[in-house]
UniProtKB/TrEMBL annotation:
Source organism: Paenibacillus graminis
One GO biological process term: fatty acid biosynthetic process
Single GO MF descriptor: oxidoreductase activity, acting on the CH-OH group of donors, NAD or NADP as acceptor
Keyword set, alphabetical order: Oxidoreductase
InterPro entries in alphabetical order: NAD(P)-bd_dom_sf, Sc_DH/Rdtase_CS, SDR_fam
PROSITE patterns named among the record's database cross-references: ADH_SHORT (PS00061)
Pfam families to which the protein is assigned, alphabetical: adh_short_C2
Family statement drawn from the similarity comment of this UniProt entry: Belongs to the short-chain dehydrogenases/reductases (SDR) family.
Name assigned to this protein: Short-chain dehydrogenase
């Protein structure tokens, strides 16, 4: 029987893969047979990730490329480098993100812009410059990392800029999916709840915050490393050939209550 999840020979790009869940996605895609270009601002971290995962999968190419997703010129150059190295892009994972927890009355415009420019405009710019290559080949799988906070809000944690950005990602996913469906390109999103990473380590993984989270989350715990991989693999592979514009919340049931 055909393995619907096989990624042998596929070429992937992950924006936001120098730390956190992006590193796990890099390892998962490489493990399923894909070559992966990894993008972020901290080049030294990308090199370390490429070396570590490359050592586990020596037959795969893991290419670190420094790129700030807020800067269109850097994205154009990064995509050029990926095309030079791989010749094609089958999978784009827009995973770069930052968060802020400042209530709207105290939120500075610069802080708002930082979150919106990274989390939403970054998805727009990356998609813009990759999708033209996918369109030429009539094949592409775009996966955007949204968040449960793109659908739900929190009274105790005021992530207003992040809510706006991730809500925007969810609906941008639908819009781009609708336009490019006839071009063989699927566009979907994942909506994680709480996973340990640099972003969450010192804020949401405190004893008090975890107690609150676990009390509300139907599964009573945060996500474990690797528990987002299944959703990403589904959207990255031909298993999702008739699925587009969807956001899959991987949240222990948080958004169903
Ligand atoms: N962890 C969770 O519980 C959770 C829940 C819901 C959604 N998410 C989303 O998951 C994604 C990954 O976050 P994480 O939790 O793994 O946190 P993380 O460890 O802080 O990772 C964030 C990644 O985004 C990159 N990044 C940030 N700003 C960037 C920029 N301007 N240009 C390029 N790359 C940039 C960072 O690299 P550099 O700093 O090197 O640039 C890093 O690789 C984010 O979109 C986040 O919103 C996470």
């Amino acid at each position: 029987m055909t393995n619907l999840f096989d990624l042998t020979g596929k070429k992937a790009v992950i924006a936001g893969a120098s730390s956190g869940i992006g590193v796990q996605f890099t390892e998962m895609l490489a493990g399923q047979g894909a070559d992966v270009a990894i993008l972020a601002r901290r080049y030294d971290k990308l090199v370390a990730v490429a070396e570590e995962i490359g050592a586990k999968y020596p037959e795969r190419r893991i290419i670190p490329i420094q790129c700030d997703v807020r800067q269109e010129d850097e994205i154009i150059e990064a995509v050029r480098k990926v095309m030079e190295a791989f010749g094609q892009i089958d999978i784009l994972l827009n995973n770069a993100g930052v968060v802020d927890a400042v209530p709207i009355e105290a939120l500075e415009e610069e802080a708002w812009d930082r979150v919106l420019d990274t989390d939403l405009k970054g998805v727009f710019l990356m998609s813009k410059h990759v999708i033209r290559h996918m369109k030429e080949r009539k094949y592409g799988k775009i996966i955007n990392t949204a968040s449960m906070l793109g659908l739900t809000a929190s009274a105790s944690v005021p992530t207003h800029s992040y809510n706006a950005a991730k809500g925007g990602v969810i609906h941008l996913t639908r819009g781009v999916a609708a336009t490019y469906a006839k071009h063989g390109i699927t566009v979907n999103a994942i909506g994680p709840s709480l996973f340990r990473s640099e972003m969450t380590e010192n804020t949401l993984f405190t004893e008090q915050a975890l107690k609150m989270y676990n009390a509300v989350c139907p599964m009573g715990r945060p996500g474990n490393p690797g528990e987002l991989n299944g959703a990403v693999l589904y959207f990255a592979s031909d298993a999702s050939s008739y699925t587009t514009g969807q956001t899959l919340f991987v949240d222990g049931g948080w958004t169903i209550i």
